[in-house]
């Protein structure tokens, strides 16, 4: 029995390859025929050094695993980046849908109305802004507005509908504006408010004028005028007091909640001669809780109705303010007419206007004190129209 020239293991004469190391023992033949004269028959040289198998080359076996590791590392990093991108997209989408519900226009307006309805002054202050640098907005300055809301339950409902439809209230007092953003995408809304600057007039020299119980001015003559403000919209009581005068205790309450009331005149003048009727009037005016009674009693100096009424300056208090508001709304000069004033409903003033020269009847108007709305009688339908 022979041995393998490569590894020395025993092999049989019929073996083509060594059973131990796989070394070829017999040469490759291309034909079964005997070789020609030109062909060289391979001979076996036991002393020649056999070639090493390709599979045992150490350089080949070491390079392949390194390339595989690099590919695996690159693939792992790619998967991590894809996962991070997907996570960021999911966070952004979730944030958007969350913000779309929490910071939508309707939700923010609803939060504003809820804060005012619940008399939450701190929250209400946060929702307010103004273009008037002199107007301070805080829990104290908005108190008259919160007081007004308690007297007019319909205002908030009208306010909400107007803000959603037109971005401002029908009276022009509040406007929905954008102040920054929530979560980068959603506008942050606030209510931009118009400041009020009423003018108080009195003919009582040295009389003290107070506004919602706070003394704000002292008359320096008998034709004194004081411009109050800036005031946050709301319900205000203007009161006149003077020691030893029939004017002591006279007050007028106004709802300053409309752009038409921004520069309204408040007349705290008194008749030249005091009488028992005036004294009773002044006492009743000291009750600020009854707006309509106080305002009408404060104007006992109003002349009695004649066939064609009286001029605007002959009226006082709410009657004069109502005539002024109607004239402003319909664009005519109140000095061109005389007026007959009546009160068909609580807080609703009716004014019949007559031409001052011809004394011919012109038209009939009504003024709603609570909502600061003027309307005119349609003579054909018999109904008042705004």
Automatic annotation (TrEMBL):
InterPro entries: TcaA_2nd (IPR054529), Znf_ribbon (IPR059113)
Compositionally biased region (Basic residues): 63-73
Keyword Lipid metabolism: no
Stretches assigned to the TcaA second domain: 106-193
Family matches, as Pfam families: TcaA_2nd, Zn_ribbon_3
Residue ranges with Polar residues bias: 28-40, 270-282
Residue ranges crossing the lipid bilayer per the database entry: 80-99
Disordered: region residues: 26-73, 263-317
Keywords, alphabetical: Membrane, Transmembrane, Transmembrane helix
Feature: compositional bias, Basic and acidic residues: 42-52
Domain called Putative zinc-ribbon: residue spans: 3-25
Name of the protein described by the UniProt record: Zinc-ribbon domain-containing protein
Native species: Secundilactobacillus mixtipabuli
Upper lineage: Bacteria, Bacillati, Bacillota, Bacilli, Lactobacillales
């Amino acid at each position: 029995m022979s041995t393998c020239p490569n590894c020395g293991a025993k092999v049989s004469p019929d073996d083509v390859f060594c059973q131990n190391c796989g070394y070829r023992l017999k040469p490759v033949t291309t034909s079964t025929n005997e070789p020609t004269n030109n062909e060289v028959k391979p001979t076996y040289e036991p002393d020649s050094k056999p070639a090493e198998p390709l599979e045992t080359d150490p350089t080949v076996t070491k390079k392949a695993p390194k390339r595989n590791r690099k590919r695996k590392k690159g693939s792992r990093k790619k998967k991590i980046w894809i996962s991070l991108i997907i996570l960021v997209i999911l966070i952004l989408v979730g944030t958007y849908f969350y913000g779309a519900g929490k910071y939508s226009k309707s939700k923010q307006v609803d939060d504003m109305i809820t804060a005012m309805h619940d008399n939450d002054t701190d929250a209400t202050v946060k929702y307010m802004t103004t273009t008037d640098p002199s107007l301070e907005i805080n829990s104290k300055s908005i108190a008259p507005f919160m007081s007004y809301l308690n007297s007019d339950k319909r205002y908030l409902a009208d306010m909400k509908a107007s803000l959603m439809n037109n971005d401002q209230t029908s009276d022009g007092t509040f406007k929905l504006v954008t102040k920054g953003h929530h979560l980068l995408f959603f506008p942050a809304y606030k209510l931009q408010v118009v400041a009020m600057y009423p003018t108080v007039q009195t003919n009582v020299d040295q009389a003290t004028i107070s506004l919602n119980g706070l003394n704000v001015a002292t008359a320096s003559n008998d034709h004194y005028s004081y411009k109050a403000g800036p005031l946050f919209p709301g319900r205000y009581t203007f009161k006149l007091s003077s020691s030893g005068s029939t004017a002591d205790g006279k007050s007028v309450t106004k709802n300053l909640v409309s752009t038409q009331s921004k520069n309204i005149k408040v007349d705290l003048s008194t008749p030249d001669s005091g009488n028992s009727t005036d004294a009773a009037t002044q006492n009743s005016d000291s009750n600020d809780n009854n707006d309509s009674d106080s305002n009408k009693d404060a104007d006992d100096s109003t002349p009695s109705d004649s066939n064609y009424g009286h001029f605007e300056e002959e009226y006082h208090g709410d009657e004069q303010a109502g005539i002024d508001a109607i004239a402003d709304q319909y664009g005519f000069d109140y000095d061109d007419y005389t007026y007959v004033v009546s009160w068909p409903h609580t807080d609703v003033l009716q004014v019949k206007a007559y031409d001052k020269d011809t004394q011919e009847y012109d038209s009939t108007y009504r003024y709603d004190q609570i909502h600061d709305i003027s309307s005119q009688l349609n003579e054909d339908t018999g109904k008042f129209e705004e």
